Amino acid sequence: MQHLYVYAVLVFEAMATFVGQVSVLSLIALFGAATTAMVTTARKAVTLLLSYLIFTKPMTEQHVTGLLLITMGIVLRLLPEDKEKKGTAERQQAKAQRGEEKRRGDGVEEETSPLV
Known about the structure:
Layout: H1 4-31, H2 33-54, H3 61-78, H4 82-101
Helix pairs in contact: 1-2, 2-3
């Protein structure tokens, strides 16, 4: 084993990648794709901000504008909307009505949603 350091770095990179992928997939399973996208975007924004603070790079107006846009997008997504709640209730009611219509004679619902 001539280059043990290289092998150690490769194993560490593989393990870090595995943990990252499992974390993202768990977030998707628990909270949905939209929330996961917000979390990963926020993580990138925080990483960028910390990079500028730690390495004392000059932050231009474009950088500040980008960080503000990302922050505003995340905050707006977190705010509740009355329209969305009303639409969700109506969709659930319509879905329940369709479910009753699609029942077979023996009382078992047929699976009609696509698998993918």
